[in-house]
Amino acid sequence: MAGPLLQPLLLLLLSFALGSAEEEAQDTGERIINGVPCPRGAHPWQVALYHNNVFLCAGVLVHEKWVLTVADCYSREYIVQIGTNLLVDRNAQKIRATEFFTHPRYDVTTNVHNIMLLKLSSPAKLSPTVRIMKVPSSCKQPGTTCTVAGWGSTTMDGVRNPSKLMCSNVRIIPYNDCKQVYPTLLRKFTICAAPPRRSSFACKGDSGSPLICQGSLQGLVSSDYFPCRPPFDPIIYTRVCKYRKWIYETIIKNC
Known about the structure:
Blueprint: H1 2-17, E1 36-37, E2 46-51, E3 54-63, E4 66-69, E5 78-82, E6 93-102, E7 116-120, E8 145-150, E9 166-173, H2 175-181, E10 190-194, E11 210-213, E12 216-221, E13 235-239, H3 244-253
Antiparallel strand pairs: 1-9, 2-3, 2-5, 3-4, 4-7, 5-6, 6-7, 8-9, 8-11, 9-10, 10-13, 11-12, 12-13
């Protein structure tokens, strides 16, 4: 009796364990605005979310049938593009997602608990260009070097998206330092990161883009504040490591 009941859970845990390590961006560029193209194939877990053929935001494949993104990227249905650095790629996997699960304490007015899971209508086909990123078991500390990648606007007017995935090297900033910049926006379950010389910034379309720190998924760009122009303040991310339990429980209950 126990075998059939445990099998789905064991498969789920195995799929999480297949997450592969991140390669940091090889260029010295520190931006998504003014960004550098990510190395081809370096982000095989990153997906692009579309609605009615319009790019909305990014997400991360955390299971063959599940994508993690931010709740403010909500739509009634999505086409999830998987396995490519290109924003538009006819050869990429495209899978419909019509089921979504926002965090039960998400507040649309304050963006608290800005995180959401999408269930794909069919499993993604894993390959060298399509991989699962495991959910982190621990939180990285301030000073850790990370990479954020996205298809958000590369111009300060916020209207031009790149054709390729763009990367920026950043570091996690101490909570109290970021609190001085965002006295009302920063929350307990968020994290801040910025390039060393503050020469770059995420912009419109970068919501849901993953912050990868030493091979670990630590954040998702949260669109609390996108001035898209200097001075480039730190970016606020949903701190994924704080939601590990909710992510696992949601997937297991809705397999």
